[in-house]
Amino acid sequence: MWDDAIVLTLKLATLVTIVLLVVGTPIAWWLARSKAWWKEAVGAVVALPIVLPPTVLGFYLLIALGPHSPIGQAAQALFGQTLPFTFEGLVIGSVIYSLPFVVQPIRNAFEAFGERPLEAAATLRASPLDTFFNVALPLARPGMLTGAVLGFAHTVGEFGVVLMIGGNIPGETKVLSVAIYDYVETLEWGKAHVLSAGMVVFSFFVILSVMVTEKRMRSRLT
Amino acid sequence: MTLAAHFVGSKGSFTLDARFSFPARGVTALFGPSGCGKTTLLRCIAGLNRLDFGRFEIGGEPWQNERIFLAPHKRALGYVFQDANLFAHLSVRDNLLFGATRAARQNTQADKTQAGPVDFDDLVALLGLGHLLERAPANLSGGERQRVAIGRALLTRPKILLMDEPLSALDHASKNEIMPYLEGLHDTLSIPILYVTHAPEEVARLADHLVVLEQGRVLASGPLTETLARLDLPIRHDDNAGVAIEAVIAERDEHWHLTRAAFAGGSIWVRDPGLAIGHRVRLRVLARDVSLALQQNTNSSIMNSLAATVTDIAANGHPGVRLVRVDVGGTPLVARLTARSAHELDLAPGKAVWAQIKSVAVLG
Question: Tell me, which fold does domain A2-34+45-221 have in CATH?
Answer without folding.
Answer: MetI-like fold (1.10.3720)
